[in-house]
Amino acid sequence: MSNYNWCHNPSCHTIETQSRVRGTGDNKVLRTVKIKQGRYNWNDDNTPNIWDYFCNQNCLHQFLGKFAQEVANLNPTPKPKETPIKVKKVKEERYRYRYDSVNGQERVPYMSTRTEIKSVDND
Ligand SMILES: [Zn+2]
To answer: Do residues 55 and 33 make contact, with C-beta atoms less than 8 angstroms apart?
Structure first.
């Protein structure tokens, strides 16, 4: 048995696409899009998925724009969080390419410094 949701964008039914047209003759309407739950659940488990509630990115972002404050209040974040890390500078040889009309293309080595971020276990 399949379950369905209606797109949660309150303005979904005002977007003019042929896929939203329902009705016959002079009694046509634009209807909110019906969404089959689990349509993008490739793992076939019951993982919650945002696309079970919105027909597309346009509707999702219209919803987020309209309810931005309410959405933010679902997870109040009065101060930043921090993740402990170790930062390591790693030197390595890299190459750049130089072209001139005498030698053509030439590969030129140089030393580069890369910053490596390692997570720290804090059990
Ligand atoms: Zn929609």
So the answer is: yes
Round to whole Å and give the CA distance between 51 and 40.
7
Residues 72-103: tens digit of each pLDDT: 999 999 999 999 999 999 999 999 999 989 88
Ligand 1 centre and the CA of 52: distance in Å? Answer: 11
Please tell me the predicted confidence (pLDDT) of residue 25: 95
Residues 30/20, Cβ–Cβ less than 8 Å: yes
For the entire predicted model, the pTM comes to: 0.71
Amino acid at 10: P
Q: What is the pLDDT of residue 121?
A: 78
Distance 44 CA to ligand 1 centre (A): 23
Ligand 1 geometric centre to CA of 77 (Å): 29
Using the mean position of ligand 1's atoms as its centre, give its distance from the Cα of residue 65 in Å. 14
Burial of 67 (0-12, 13-18, 19+ CB in 10 A): middle
